[in-house]
Design goal:
388 residues, alpha/beta, Rossmann fold, Alpha-Beta Plaits, 3 domains, seven-stranded parallel beta sheet, 32% helix, binds nicotinamide-adenine-dinucleotide, binds 3-phosphoglyceric acid, NAD binding, NAD, D-3-phosphoglycerate dehydrogenase
């Protein structure tokens, strides 16, 4: 029996994929596996029993990835599963910034008891007029699952699209419309675009990426959209730029006390992935990842451990070892098994950064003594007997 805990509500269609072998628990401390959306895991004490955390979503800055890796806890996310939901809201954000639709709707609410509202509308509407986005230039920083979808959709709306991503994946490049101009220097995005949207993960390298220097390079009346994370933008610099008219609108999906009431900022309450479709997609992908890891030891879409897939075990037993990426680990494991007279029928050893993972299929079962010896190897972080 596996125990799982949901730190946020997770769509039923995903949770229904757990078989009777899984029990939902209320206590984090009891969980073997955890499902989470944006709740912070940083301040939680990670129980020794915890094997895996699946983020039903893209951003993993709410999870202490290294701390988890160090405890042999594999962290997954669900790449692309909510990208369409975000793409649609980014397009909406551009349209809401281009014309004062929200100001107009608020005006109607104020005038709703006015019997002459029809006539008054025709006088008042010029205050809410704006521009069209067709023919304008959109710059996209980060061409991953979301950036690519935004880029392709914007070209269909008649925008000129410039894209910047020095680490673009082959898959993303294949999916990108050929009409998108590949930009090699991010400065060119800043200086050439009427709309700029940022779709990169929050890391120490991207924090405050849109800073005063970046804003200084932008065209007057630029619209900046941030559906990634608030701290990617120096919001003090952004508010000054709105104040002095350099930036026309800042559209953000991340309310905080600084922007919530600031003039010129359109603040959406983190709704990018809050569609039934995205929530379902993320939940299904996250649960499948957890089940495959718990039952087969396979790792798909982990952000702190390497991908590793040996399918379903057809040998007598399978052992999974999470360990540091240092030399001679495999040699020690195979020697120990040979000494115990256990034959290896299949194995995979993969690494990602400082961490590695070894899956071993064995011709016979292994006793506790061998498992304890494997656990005692310097650099081993976790050993799991997947199949006895
Ligand atoms: N508002 C929401 O509800 C919502 C929903 C999903 C994702 N997000 C945020 O959006 C981010 C992106 O999501 P995604 O699904 O597109 O992720 P992704 O991993 O598919 O794409 C991120 C892209 O950013 C690129 N990148 C990284 N550093 C860069 C840099 N310095 N300059 C340019 N490009 C860089 C990567 O190469 C990658 O292609 C997530 O990390 C998350 O923070 C928000
Ligand atoms: O990174 C993400 O996937 C988004 O920010 C969505 O977060 P949510 O699952 O809390 O809506």
């Amino acid at each position: 029996m596996f125990k799982y805990k949901c730190l946020n509500p997770i769509a039923k269609v995903g949770l229904d994929l757990f078989s009777d072998e899984y029990e939902r628990v209320e206590e984090f401390a009891e969980a073997d596996a955890v499902l989470v959306r944006s709740a912070s895991v940083h301040d939680l004490e990670l129980p020794d029993t915890l094997e895996a955390i699946a983020r039903a979503g893209a951003g993993v800055n709410n999870i202490p990835l290294d701390k988890c890796a160090e405890k042999g806890i594999v962290v997954f996310n669900t790449p692309g599963a909510n990208a369409n939901g975000v793409k649609e809201l980014v397009i909406a954000g551009m349209l809401l910034a281009a014309r004062d639709v929200i100001g107009g709707i608020n005006w109607v609410q104020k005038e709703k008891e006015n019997p002459d509202i029809t006539k008054a509308t025709e006088k008042a509407k010029k205050a809410f007029a704006g521009n069209e986005i067709e023919g304008k230039t959109l710059g996209i920083i980060g061409l991953g699952a979301i950036g690519v979808k935004v880029a392709n959709a914007a070209t269909h709306l008649g925008m000129n699209v410039l894209g910047y991503d020095p680490y673009i994946s082959v898959d993303a490049a294949w999916n990108l419309s050929r009409s998108i101009k590949h930009i090699k220097k991010v400065e060119d995005i800043y200086s050439e675009c009427d709309y700029i949207t940022i779709h990169v993960p929050l890391t120490d390298g991207t924090r405050q990426m849109i800073n005063q220097d970046a804003i200084d390079m932008m065209k007057d009346d630029v619209v900046v959209l941030n559906f990634s994370r608030d701290t990617l933008v120096d919001e003090d610099a952004m508010l000054s730029a709105l104040e002095n008219g350099k930036v026309k609108r800042y559209v953000t999906d991340f309310p905080n006390p600084k922007v919530a009431n600031a003039k010129g900022v359109l603040v959406i309450p983190h709704l990018g992935a809050s569609t039934e479709e995205s929530e379902d997609n993320c939940a299904v992908m996250a649960v499948k990842e957890l089940v495959d890891y718990m039952e087969n030891g396979n790792i798909n879409n982990s952000v702190n451990y390497p991908s590793c897939n040996m399918g379903v075990c057809s040998s007598v037993s399978r052992v999974a070892i999470n360990h540091r990426n240092v030399k001679n680990m495999l040699g020690q494991f195979t020697n120990m098994l040979a000494e115990a007279d256990v034959n290896i029928t299949n194995m995979v050893n993969k690494s990602k950064g400082d961490y590695a993972y070894t899956l071993l299929d064995l011709e016979t079962g292994v006793n506790k003594e061998v498992i304890d010896k494997l656990r005692a190897v310097d650099g081993v972080l976790k050993v799991r007997v997947i199949k006895k």
